[in-house]
Design brief:
mainly alpha; 158 residues; elongated
Amino acid sequence: MTRLLETVSHLFARLTRGLAVAMAAVMVVCLLLQIFFRYALSSPLTWTEELAVLMFAWIVMLMGSLGVREDFHVRLTLLLDRIPDSAQLWVERATLAAILAFGVLLAIAGYHYVEGTLGVVSAAIGFPIEALHLAAPVCGALIVLHASARLLGGGREP
C-alpha cells in the first residue's frame, strides 16, 4: 500500500511540474502580449490579464502542493536541530499530520466554495469561474496525497 501511494504521489508530482511549467509559459505570453498591445499599439487586450491571473493562481497552488512532497517550503529549524534525532522524527511526523489536515480542510472548503460559485463567469473572458476556484480542492487533494505518502513512507522525500 505504501509503495502504491508513493508511486501515485510521484506520478502526480511529475504531472504537477509539467502543468506548472505549461501554465507559466501561458502566463508569460499573456503578460508579454499585454505589454506589447498596451504600449506598442496603444490598444490593450482585455483578456490577457484575466488569463494570467488564472494561470498564476493555479501555479501557486500546484507548486504549494509539490512543496509538500519535495519538502522545499521554508521553515525554521533552529529548535529542531537542537533536539535528538528520534524527537526530530516525531516532530516531522506531527508537522506532516498537520499539513495533511490542512490539505483535507482545503479540499473540503474549496469544494464547497466551487459549489457556491457554480454558474458565475469571469468578467473579461467569460470562462466559468470554477476554473479558478477549482485550484483549492484539487491542490488540497494533492497535499493530502503527498503528505500521506511522506507520512507513511517515513517522512522525508525518498
